[in-house]
Amino acid sequence: xxxxxxxxxxxxxxxxxxxxxxxxxxxxxxxxxxxxxxxxxxxxxxxxxxxxxxxxxxxxxxxxxxxxxxxxxxxxxxxxxxxxxxxxxxxxxxxxxxxxxxxxxxxxxxxxxxxxxxxxxxxxxxxxxxxx
Length: 132
Fold this sequence. Notes:
- There is one protein chain.
- The protein is an alpha+beta fold and about 130 residues long.
- It has a domain at about 35-125: Double Stranded RNA Binding Domain (2-Layer Sandwich), CATH 3.30.160.20.
- The chain has 2 helices and 5 strands.
- The strands form 2 sheets. A 3-stranded antiparallel beta sheet has the order 3-4-5, covered by helices on one side. Strands 1-2 form a two-stranded antiparallel ribbon.
- Strand 1 (about 5-15) and strand 2 form a beta hairpin.
């Protein structure tokens, strides 16, 4: 997953009445994620929800020895408890999420990319960090 937030090129568009500045945001795989940001946020979400810590695995190494590209995956075990008001039985569901990141030249950046993908998914299913 590539996050577009790193390099900004500014270009100006001007007309007779007003001048507008447009920011074109582009990124490279090495610049796409702040260092350690995705992994730490993912750890925070897991701790806040009392889940096991995420597991990062290097699942693929490809390319020549002087230019190896690493692909990481992150595995998150989510436990959700459901308690019925009328019944004293509580249900626990266990879901395992496995997210693969894009290839990077550095292992930490590849792990961050996988974490960013997991954060995106968790945000869209309602488990994101609030006010951060």
